[in-house]
Design a protein that fits this description.
The protein is α/β, with parallel strands linked by helices and 329 residues long. The protein has one domain. It has 10 helices and 13 strands. The strands form 3 sheets. The protein has a 7-stranded mixed β-sheet, with helices on one face. A 4-stranded mixed β-sheet has the order 7-8-10-11, with no helix packed on it. β10 and β11 form a beta hairpin. The chain is globular. GO terms for molecular function: O-acetyltransferase activity. Keywords: Membrane, Signal, Signal-anchor, Transmembrane, Transmembrane helix. It holds the Pfam family PC-Esterase. InterPro entries: TBL, TBL_C, TBL_N.
């Protein structure tokens, strides 16, 4: 399995729907089988009215000519999703803390959720602070904190006298994730990059190793952390599935123009099947082990929905000539 992909995210509403509709999942409702349908009541917020939105997310302001991309909503085959109600969301989560941990996929979710909630209560006072890698958006009236911790590998990367060291069996940064009511994690696409000088496992150091094997070890470390540290009777834990790459799957090189030309969701069964084969079975194995310990980790299956909604990405309309916002986030 190659690790050549860079992450993109299209399924913000899926995360929000799951946060609201866990009872449907408990009843056996399959929220992951369905299709994107055009809805004249969408989008749920206008990015131009979100005062804190990052520049790269303002596609319309940055000159994107087609405006249909945010007007599609996910419609499960056998379920009816409730309309997103920001006020209801804030009231139900009053006094609670929600944290996204991961790479650009989680950044997108955090940005979308905060803008959607702000558009529901535009006059409600808020604060936004950043400390280290953690950004916190707080709705003061409701005491709701929405956090994002940029941690693309989940395991620790530390500075040592020999250089930057990735510690595959250590999650000291997990102390920043404690006390949350909801935790939403993701990791994958940055594993194709070498953001360290050495990899450490126990007392052993190596310059590099098979990235898939490293990813599996890190995922196991994360699973052990959830098992031993998180009180899942008080904290809901989600793991976001893998999103597709920035380029069409049958292309050896990036060609933004081809997939950016897509302006409506397109179901490509071959692409879905091919991307499905890329997903490591290591997460399923780890999830099974956690379930044997009566710990439920909910996997948000982002992949298929993203493959059929490739046009919903701000790459060419981020207001900069640099790499795409999700490549650099």
């Amino acid at each position: 399995m190659g690790l050549q992909d860079n992450a993109i995210s299209y399924g913000s509403m899926l995360v929000l729907s799951l946060l609201l509709l866990l009872p449907l999942l408990a009843k056996g409702c399959d929220m992951f089988t369905g299709q994107w349908v055009k809805d004249p009541s969408y989008p749920l917020y206008d990015p131009s009215t979100c005062p804190f939105i990052r520049r790269e997310f303002g596609c319309k302001k940055n000159g994107r000519p087609d405006l249909d991309y945010p007007t599609f909503r996910w419609q499960p085959q056998g379920c009816k999703l409730a309309w997103f109600n920001g006020v209801d969301f804030l009231q139900k989560n009053k006094g609670k803390k929600i944290m996204f941990v991961g790479d650009s996929l989680s950044l997108n979710q955090w940005q979308s959720l905060t803008c959607m909630l702000h558009s529901s209560v535009p006059k409600s006072p808020y604060t936004m602070t950043t400390e280290g890698t953690i950004s916190t958006f707080t709705f003061q009236e409701y005491g709701v904190g929405i956090k994002f911790d940029r941690n693309p590998y989940l395991v620790d990367i530390v500075s040592d006298k020999i250089g930057s060291v990735m510690k595959l069996d250590s999650i000291n940064d997990g102390k920043n994730w404690l006390g949350m009511d909801t935790l939403i994690f993701n990791t994958w696409h940055w594993w194709s990059r070498k953001s360290w000088d050495y990899i450490q496992i126990g007392s052993n150091f190596t310059k590099d190793m098979d990235r898939m094997a490293a990813f599996e070890i890190a995922l196991g470390t994360w699973g052990k952390w959830v098992d031993t540290v998180v009180d899942t009777s008080k904290t809901r834990v989600f793991f976001q599935g893998i999103s597709p790459s920035h380029y069409k799957l049958n292309e050896a090189t990036v060609d933004h123009s081809q997939w950016m030309a897509e302006v409506v969701p397109e179901a490509d069964e071959a692409s879905k099947e091919q991307m499905g084969r890329r997903i490591s079975s290591s997460f399923e194995d780890m999830k099974t082990q956690l379930m044997m310990r009566h710990i439920l980790v909910r996997d948000l299956e982002m992949l298929v929905h993203s493959v059929v909604h490739l046009e919903n990405h701000p790459m060419d309309h981020e207001g900069t000539k640099a790499l795409g916002c999700f490549q650099e986030a």
